[in-house]
């Protein structure tokens, strides 16, 4: 805590007497500067306690002198009496009282060096305390970042260290908030973030000073820190430390998250391929005992960002399993449980997403059930409903009039060239065709849903035409392909 004028005046051995500015003595003293110049502004930075004996001052020149000191931003004036002046000039005192400049009378017995030493000791102690505070805060943040707390723990710890609120934002929404009420500031902070490409921005919000700083991550993120008072030197260092730790932790977390996502998708692929024993073994090893069949299978469809955020929302729920598959998130739980409710809650928290449900599902029928749930979810999306069960969807669809075996053989034969292409790892033609047809050939909308550039989608659809030897501009061809995809 910096030494204030009041604390200095209360130092009895110095014998200082307050002449003016009693109400502003809580000003901190940055340093002490003795001078007899009548205009020392060029040598001041602001916040100093200026010491003078008034060698070049008189009653007539004192008012202008005081105003120059105020313009220079000094904290106060210490006037030594008993040398050039027996008393502090009355004009100086009157002007200082008028403009709010604290004046301390320094007795003849008190050398200026004693005041300088007192301030110097306080500044050194304050700097040491700041260094200790920064070091301890950095240790606490580092332990939190490398421990179980992770990025969310760093956000909570930072809020406590700066005695304020903290938001961690990404391109979709809020990744972390401390305390929870900080969520209410998210919309305003996001608007401010639009004006910040990188670096730091400071603004006022509901009586708080908010420091908004971008993180050094591949995915655009930012940290917002709101405090009732502006951050001091230690506070700024602590925030910078949090930014560095979060940037590192989130990059590492991103790589690990991608690896787990791919593993989850691989498990679903194994289930769909009939490798049930192997899939269940992986699930048990990596996430604990899987849900007991028969299952309820839920498909959640939405954009890439929504699917990713839905995975975050479902993470940690050990009573279910989820994975991205194509352009959907497949959620598996025990039949008759509340898996649907939990999936819908996750979808609602990141929206917009749409759900399809198949229940019950024997283990051996998983591949068909996953596709059926996906179809029902896309029907929900088309109807603007949060949920459609496959039973509802199949009861009204064209495919209900066709023998399922015949329909599946027809679809497999028609789409076989595309599936062979996709299985070779050269693209994702089946899903691209499905999405393009769902959105009636609107390139921009379908590309956004797939998370690719529209030129990429055009190239994929051109490849579909080449492999199938069909003209996709024909309504009949589109109808046949749509039926094949549904089958």
Automatic annotation (TrEMBL):
It comes from the Bacteria. Pfam families: HTH_30, PucR. Residues 15-122 form the Purine catabolism PurC-like domain. Residues 429-487 form the PucR C-terminal helix-turn-helix domain. Transmembrane segments: none annotated. This is PucR family transcriptional regulator. It comes from Amycolatopsis vastitatis. The lineage of its organism: Bacteria, Bacillati, Actinomycetota, Actinomycetes, Pseudonocardiales.
């Amino acid at each position: 805590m910096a030494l204030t004028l009041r604390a200095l005046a209360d130092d009895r051995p110095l014998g200082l007497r307050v002449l003016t500015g009693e109400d502003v003595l809580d000003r901190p003293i940055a340093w002490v500067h003795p001078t007899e110049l009548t205009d020392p502004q060029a040598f001041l930075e602001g916040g100093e306690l200026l010491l003078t004996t008034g060698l070049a001052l008189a009653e007539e020149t004192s008012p202008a002198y005081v105003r120059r000191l105020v313009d220079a931003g000094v904290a106060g004036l210490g006037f030594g009496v008993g040398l050039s002046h027996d008393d502090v000039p009355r004009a100086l005192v009157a002007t200082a009282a008028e403009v709010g400049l604290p004046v301390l009378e320094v007795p003849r017995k008190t050398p200026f060096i004693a005041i300088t030493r007192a301030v110097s000791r306080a500044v050194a102690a304050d700097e040491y305390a700041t260094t200790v505070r920064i070091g301890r805060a950095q240790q606490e943040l580092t332990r939190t970042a490398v421990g179980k707390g992770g990025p969310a723990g760093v956000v909570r710890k930072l809020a406590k260290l700066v005695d304020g609120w903290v938001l961690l934002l990404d391109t979709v929404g809020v990744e972390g908030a401390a305390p929870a009420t900080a969520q209410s500031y998210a919309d305003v902070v996001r608007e401010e973030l639009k004006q910040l490409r990188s670096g730091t921005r400071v603004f006022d919000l509901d009586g708080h000073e908010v420091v908004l700083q971008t993180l050094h991550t591949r995915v655009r993120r930012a940290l917002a820190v709101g405090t009732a008072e502006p951050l001091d030197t230690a506070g700024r260092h602590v925030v910078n430390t949090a930014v560095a730790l979060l940037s590192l932790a989130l990059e590492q977390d991103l790589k690990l998250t991608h690896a787990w996502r791919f593993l989850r998708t691989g498990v679903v692929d194994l289930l769909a391929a009939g490798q049930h024993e192997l899939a269940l073994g992986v699930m048990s090893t990596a996430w604990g005992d899987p849900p007991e069949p028969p299952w309820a299978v839920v498909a959640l469809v939405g954009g890439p960002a929504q699917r990713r955020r839905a995975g975050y929302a479902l993470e940690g729920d050990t009573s279910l399993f989820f994975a991205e598959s194509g352009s959907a998130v497949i959620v598996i739980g025990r039949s008759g449980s509340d898996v649907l409710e939990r999936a819908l809650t996750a979808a609602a928290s990141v929206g917009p997403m749409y759900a399809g449900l198949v229940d019950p599902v024997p283990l051996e029928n998983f591949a068909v059930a996953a596709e059926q749930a996906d179809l029902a979810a896309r029907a929900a999306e088309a109807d603007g409903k949060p949920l459609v069960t496959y039973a509802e969807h199949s009861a009204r669809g064209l495919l209900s009039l066709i023998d399922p075996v015949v329909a599946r053989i027809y679809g497999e034969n028609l789409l076989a060239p595309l599936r062979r292409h996709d299985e070779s790892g050269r693209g994702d033609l089946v899903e691209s065709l499905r999405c393009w047809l769902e959105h009636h050939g609107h390139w921009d909308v379908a590309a956004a849903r797939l998370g690719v550039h529209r030129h990429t989608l055009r190239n994929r659809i051109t490849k579909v035409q080449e492999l199938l030897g069909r003209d996709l501009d024909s309504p009949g061809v589109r109808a046949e392909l749509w039926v094949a995809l549904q089958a």
